[in-house]
Structure formats: structure tokens, C-alpha cells
Amino acid sequence: MRIIIDTPEKIAEMAALRYVELLSQKPNAILGLATGSTPIGLYKELVKLNREGKLSFKDATTFNLDEYVGLEPTHDQSYRYFMNENLLSHVDVPTEKTHVPSGIDLTKAASYDSEIAAAGGIDLQLLGIGNNGHIGFNEPGTPIGSTTHLVELTQSTREANARFFGSIDDVPTQAVTMGIKTVMNAKSIILIALGKGKAETIKNTLQGEVTPEVPASILQLHPDVEVYLDHEAASLLD
Ligand code: F6R
């Protein structure tokens, strides 16, 4: 595991270079993507580099981590909408090669892992981390062998995400998420954490025991993980 501590701006630039490198070596790479506030700087950088002709997604395939249950792709808080707004509609990736779990047809969750495998498996999975250590929407206690599945969101996750909705009552109570095993199957992983609110969970994730109670701690067992932290998120590390 490699830990890089820098400013959010530098992190976005450095993480973007990983994509430049990967897509130049393997133009048809399979990318695992995340939503939330954390990757927005990176996505801006990817859009810029794509516009400047420095990287192309034209042969790439994307699979997102998760989606809220009950939100249509056109709902402005759905993760499909987020991805289109922040990245996918602004780069040259063919829409049909972009995948976000369906929050409407829940029967599709069962085949999400096999779709990923059929595409060749994820080359680079991007992750943010929840205040409670969740990755994707794998909340504390999620079994390490889990594949894409339906989850009940915890109160703390719904509270954390209420900032994007009118009120907490509007935050869906369920989501579909890649499982821990789905994430761990990725060949390489980038985890980004920004801000003081993530400091404690980052300490537990990187320097605590590996336990399902801190889902991201399993990343200690993955052979190729790069963790990008700003100074605040890194502030409690030894
Ligand atoms: C989003 C996701 C979540 C977020 C996490 C952090 O697709 O899977 O695990 O990465 O909740 O969210 P932010 O970045 O908003 O702090």
C-alpha cells in the first residue's frame, strides 16, 4: 500500500496521471468509478486532459460502484446522473460502455459481477470512503465475500448524504453496491480521502486491524492500493 499526502489540487492531478498512464498502456482498460464529493476534483482534471487530447476514454469501459434504490437515472441525485454530469458526458467514452448498477430493476444486481468479469475485470478501481469506513455502500459488518448486492443504508450514511437532498427524509433507505469481493477483485485500487471528517476512519483503515467493522480496512490485504490523502485526512496517522 502506497500512501501519498498532498493538497486536494495536487491529489487530483497525481491521480489523473494514473489514468493517463493506464489508458496509454491499455486504451481498453476497465475503470471502476465512484461518486460523492471526493472524486469531483479528479473528474474535472480528467475532463480537462481529455479535452486537451492528453487522454482518451474512447475504448474504455466503466463500472460504477453503486446506485440508490428507487431513483431513476434522470433523477438529479441518482449516481447515473452524477456520473454523466461530472465525467461521462464530458469525455469521449461511448455511453453504452458505461455501467451504473440499476436502482430500479434490482434483479440486475445479481449479474453485475459477471458483467464486470466478462468485460475482463476492473483494472483500476477508484474509491472514496464513508465516515464509518464504508467503501461503495458496504456498511460496517458487510461480509468480505460479498458481491454486488442490495443494502440498507445506515442512519449515519443517510445523514452524511442528506446534504445533497432536500432533507434526510428524501435520502433513499437502500442502495445497490458492488460488494467487498467485487472491489478486492480489481487489479489496482486508488482510495482518496479529503478533509478532517475522514481522519479517524483513515487511521482505522490504514493502521487499525482488518475487520468488517471498518470495511475499508480490508484494503490492507490488497496487493496494489494507492491511498491519496490531504493533510487533514492524514492528520491522525502515526
Ligand atoms: C460513492 C461511494 C461512497 C463514497 C463515500 C464518500 O460512489 O461509493 O462510498 O465514496 O460515501 O463520499 P464523499 O466523497 O461524498 O465524502
Describe this structure in words.
The chain is of the alpha/beta class and 238 residues long. Helix content is 28%, strand content 17%. It has helices at residues 8-25, 40-51, 79-86, 112-119, 155-161, 180-184, 199-207; strands at 2-5, 30-33, 61-64, 66-68, 98-99, 124-127, 149-152, 174-177, 188-193, 225-229. α1 (8-25) crosses α2 (40-51). The structure holds fructose -6-phosphate. The site of fructose -6-phosphate has 14 residues, from loops. Fructose -6-phosphate binds next to loops.
Give short descriptive properties of this protein.
single chain; binds fructose -6-phosphate; three-stranded antiparallel β-sheet; seven-stranded parallel β-sheet; alpha/beta; 238 residues; globular
Short description:
This protein is 28% helix and 17% strand. With 238 residues, the protein is α/β, with parallel strands linked by helices.
Share of β-strand residues: 15-25%
The class by helix and strand makeup works out as: alpha/beta
Low-confidence stretches: none
Helix percent reads: 25-40%
SSE succession: EHEHEEHEHEEHEHEHE
Q: How much is the radius of gyration in Å?
A: 16 Å
Gap from first CA to last CA: 15 Å
- The tally of strands reads 10
Order the strands across the largest sheet as they lie in space. Answer: 1-10-9-6-2-3-5
What global shape is seen? globular
**What's the pLDDT, averaged over the residues?**
97
DSSP helical segment count: 7
Bound molecules: fructose -6-phosphate
Largest sheet descriptor: 7 strands, parallel
